[in-house]
Fold this protein.
Amino acid sequence: MADTGAIGKDTIILTQGLAPAGSARYAPALGPSPPAAAARAGLSRNPAAMEREPSAAEVPAFAVKDCTLIAIATGLKAWTLGELMSGIQRAPADSLYYHFWGTLLQASFEEREYNNEFAAWVRYALHEHALAERLAAIDPTGYDELEAMRDELLEILDAGLQAAEHLAWLRSTEPFEFLRHQIVVFDTERRVAHPDAMAELVPTLSASSIFYHFIDARRRNSNHRDDFRAWLDGVPGDHADACGRLAGIDPWFGQLTELRGAIAAAFAGNDDTLQ
Amino acid sequence: MSLLDDYAAVAGPEVIDRLRQLARPLAGRTVVHVNSTRLGGGVAEILAKLVPLTRELGLDVRWEVIDGDGPFFETTKAIHNGLQGRPVELSEAQRRAYEDTLARNAERLRPMLEAADYVFIHDPQPAALLAHCPNRTGRWTWRCHIDLSQPFRSTWRYLRPLVRGFDASVFSLAGFARDLGHPEYIIPPSIDPLSPKNIDLEPAEIDAVRARFGLDPARPLLVQVSRFDRFKDPVGVIAAYRMARRLVPALQLVLAGGTASDDPEGEAVLHEVRAAAGDDPDIHVLLLPPDAHRTINALQRAADIVMQKSLREGFGLTVTEGLWKGRPVIGGDTGGIRLQVVDHHTGYRVSTPEGAALRVRYLMRHPRRRAAMGETARAFVRDHFLITRQAREYLTLMVALAHADGNRIELG
């Protein structure tokens, strides 16, 4: 079965307009769709793929979601490493999420050199290369809980300060602004019934849909998998090659649109186009 | 063809599809935007398109403008200056002018505002309306478009209690946010690619504008478009032009601005600018009417380099406009200009007239580099700063406001 993911306690699911928060109910972010919906929204441009599909009762359709994210100021700022540590201690967990994941959806010009904004700030605002490299080595998918990642960030910063006393006196050229976020997820009502149709579907997805299914999914799904691999696990047949290619895509660098190309290539049977 | 179809042609149909999906749960909701002028300035320009766009998405959206007299707008200009850090002390008479004017406006607007599902109060001018609507039923948001990073203390002490009671506020940059005790969202503004100020123009129209203002098409041109406001540093631009001209003698400069009905200082600053320009025939100080959008468009397209050497800046939509026209921008290293002008890619950020002069000389010396930066600049705006992105974030905000206690909201 497809992995429905671990949706946090803050998740609100709405089924009919803007119901009050108290009336919200849980629904799987990614799960089997009604057969009618799968038949309606399958990729009709690829009839061959549709013809090969097992019966709707056997195959959970892939439900294409999209999302939009809005940043919220926390009021926490840091000019020094000490203040950065204090901010990391006090910031809500979704602030850590934002500074690792959320910024992929925000306006940015240059390619990401580091996979998180803490490392980038230490490098560019404090000009401290070694510590930035250590912070950038944190793999956010390696933590089941954001609190564990918070501890690791603090541990690296504390060790850095212990090892080089002068770091405590560095003052940045620009403050680190701690942000948090709210994310709104909506159903595009597009459904894909067979993996063969994915290579055609993926290039048509928005960058934010790619973010939701390939980046955000790693916080929701067990084993930190993206939604595509989680779905393939539940689809009859051998999809090990496609899963392997998807697993081989490093999602943290480059633009989401480039990532989209790499995912499409993985479904088409090609290697990572980012490489 | 609908407005949404028009935007789909520029931004892409998938962008409009996303807006429709996001707007679906908000269909029929009543939304009221309130600001202080219908013409002039970036806020009015944004609302002029955001309102019809969100209407077409199925929301019941209105735009109301508060009425005020001279003393009121002198006070709000003083508040504006104080919030951007200039030392100003509000007199008792000024406070009374501000509060009485908003009390009068509240009498007119109260029924609509108290019934609305969402109310957006733009900038400090109408902020005190909140206190006059005790029976409000919807979510009220203070949308602050200005740089609030270092306000003059007494001005902020006066305004803070007036805005603290909102359900949320919106700032253009994280650095502008102040501790208000409610969620403070970050939404950069945007430009409208379909407005007369930003649509593509025929070369003949650009030539006609050059001819109208006596600009030599064979010589390089710097253009700064902004209100005559000291924070825009028009006198600093003249200083930079004079320094650069020593090595680029053919240089011409246009300082084009208008006045807004809520800006009583404009005339005094215009006088200072004219004095600084002196009798230099290559400095063109143009006072344009608020609806001279195509003229501004043509001037920006006629420019080799667009200048926006602000000392303080909320966001700097004239920077976005310049980038959209494929021109590198030399901008003050402040506020939202930092988000748009990326050194060596879309232009240069500078802190002094000397710095601006240096970058002007560099860009005039490297025309191919200038052209490449212009191409990058246009693509950057298309991806991040068009009104469709801002509309999406307003819709997201409205959905989020209804669920302030959840950080993940799934619309089924």
About this structure: Residues 6 and 231 of chain A are 15 Å apart (CA to CA).
